[in-house]
Amino acid sequence: MAARARIEDVATAAGVSIKTVSRVLNREPNVRPQTRERVMQAAQALRYTPHVSARSLAGNRSFNIALLYNNPSDNYMMGVISGVLSACAHEHYHMILCPAPLQEDEVLECVDELMARSRPDGLLLTPPLTDSPVLLNRLDELEVPFAMISPKLRDQHVGVAMDEPLAAEQMVEHLAGLGHKRIAHILGHPAHGASGWRLAGYRRGMARAGLAQDPALEVPGEFSFESGVAAAKVLLDREDRPTAIFAANDDMAAGVIHVAYERGLRVPQDLSVCGFDDTPMSRQLFPALTTIHQPTDEMGRMATLALLGYMRDQTCTGIRCVPHTLIVRRSTGPAP
């Protein structure tokens, strides 16, 4: 079996110092592009992989980043996790998955324990943790670099987001174009910025279509299947029930379809149903769900790269916007 390549071997092959190789592999700035390319080619040719413990000791870093989450949608989180893992593998980092409790005081204890036990170099936050002033203040106190996915406030922060109001508005436009006039909306969890954005887009879409906005057609949810079931029962119990229901995520839309079939309603002939996120479940439902494709894996990947970039250069701030797509499937059709 061939001996494992050492950093000295890479330096010799590239014709540079060991320190230069280290700077290139750690993505540090102020290395000439030609030198960086030569070192990377040498490392690939030798199949060199850095030894994590040696890197940690040399740079006083753990080469771990922690993904802190408290989100009821497993489908959403699986996409984010996939993207984070992809970026970590490319950048020679490891991901620590850290579920956070609901209560803010318990979240602070969770973060303090995480920092003491695992010493991550930075944190990734998912909603609704992105919108917790208490948590953000604690991270600032600890001087821990962090990046956010879909934060409500976007000034002077690092991360990635999507134009969710526009996406929701386009969904309402799709339903109105099918002749629907009574379009209901199931809101997401009130602590999530996404819930407010999607509601704003729904209202804007109704106004642009010239449709009356009935507060009774705006029903609270929590981004979970169970809350979609509860909201659907409220809406479908009405004498003047809606002909279309736009749920703020796919999990709740699945709950709506479940209740519709329990009551003998055909989707989409009697009731059009649509969601948001384009999770794998949206393609597995029958009928397949009309939804907004939110590239959660790409958002996880981009947020990770933004965090690592900020850790190297703290002037690299800003929230990058990712595109969305309206995916029309068989769960929406002409108004009855």
From TrEMBL:
Superkingdom of origin: Bacteria
Pfam families given in the database record: LacI (PF00356), Peripla_BP_3 (PF13377)
Domain HTH lacI-type: start-end pairs: 5-59
Record GO terms (molecular function): DNA binding
Keyword vocabulary terms for this entry: DNA-binding, Transcription, Transcription regulation
Name of the protein in its database record: LacI family DNA-binding transcriptional regulator
Gene source species: Pseudomarimonas salicorniae
